[in-house]
């Protein structure tokens, strides 16, 4: 089993909590009323039968649903500690506004933490029954990061598949790093 810590970040009201609940099968509905996340929420769940370095394994996921409100920026160092990956979520209906915010989040959560683009995924969260395609997020920071569309009213199987592929990739990196550290200890 491999354990990974993933951060779900994005602007206020971009759908992070809704997406986090779906991914963790933790449906906490409060009607259509918006309840902003205070600081961060941590969801822990397993993803089974994931291909990790050419073998089926279970991945223990710790998903941190991080508030998009800048008043919690002082909490970010504790949230970022030992993160293995970052999922950037933005509202497909507010691309221009969210793109600027995501650039700043990329600097804080990826560049300053020494993470690589291969440890990231961008999710265009779409609301409503129209499964249209959001297109690529503008900005040079996201040019090499995979980007997927997510509409929880229309394409849940695709969202789950995209997430599982991302988990497989990050878990593979974590597993390889752990194995290398173990080899270094025994001198092989």
Give a nutshell description of this structure.
The protein has 188 residues and is of the alpha/beta class.
Describe the structure.
This is Intraflagellar transport protein 22. InterPro entries: P-loop_NTPase. Keywords: Cell projection, Cilium, Flagellum. The structure is a single chain. The protein is globular, with a radius of gyration of 16 Å. The two termini are 23 Å apart. By secondary structure, it is α/β, with parallel strands linked by helices. The protein contains 4 helices and 6 strands, in the order βαββαβαββα. It has one domain: Rossmann fold, CATH 3.40.50. The chain has a 6-stranded mixed sheet. A hairpin with a 4-residue loop joins β2 and β3 (56-66).
Structural features:
188 residues, alpha/beta, Rossmann fold, 6-stranded mixed beta sheet, 4 helices, 6 strands
Number of strands: 6
CATH superfamily annotation: P-loop containing nucleotide triphosphate hydrolases
| CATH fold field value | Rossmann fold
Low-pLDDT residue intervals, each spanning 5 or more residues: none
Strand content: 25-35%
Topology:
Elements: E1 2-9, H1 16-23, E2 40-51, E3 56-66, H2 76-80, E4 85-91, H3 95-111, E5 120-126, E6 147-151, H4 156-186
Parallel strand pairs: 1-3, 1-4, 4-5, 5-6
Antiparallel strand pairs: 2-3
């Amino acid at each position: 089993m491999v354990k990974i810590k993933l951060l779900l970040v994005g602007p206020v009201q971009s759908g992070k909590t809704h997406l986090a609940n779906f991914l963790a099968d933790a449906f906490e509905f409060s009607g259509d009323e918006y309840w902003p996340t205070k600081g961060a929420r941590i969801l822990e769940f397993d993803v089974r039968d994931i291909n990790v370095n050419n073998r089926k394994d279970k991945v223990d996921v710790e998903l941190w649903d991080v508030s998009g409100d800048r008043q919690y920026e002082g909490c970010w160092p504790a949230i970022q500690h030992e993160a293995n990956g970052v999922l950037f979520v933005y509202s497909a209906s507010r691309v221009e506004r969210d793109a600027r915010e995501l650039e700043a989040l990329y600097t804080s959560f990826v560049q300053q933490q020494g993470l690589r683009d291969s440890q990231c995924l961008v999710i265009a969260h779409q609301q409503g029954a129209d499964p249209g395609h959001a297109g690529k997020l503008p900005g040079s920071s996201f040019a090499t990061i995979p980007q997927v569309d997510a509409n929880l009213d229309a394409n849940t199987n695709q969202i789950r598949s995209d997430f599982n592929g991302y988990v497989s990739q990050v878990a593979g990196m974590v597993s390889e790093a752990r194995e290398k550290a173990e080899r270094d200890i025994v001198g092989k």
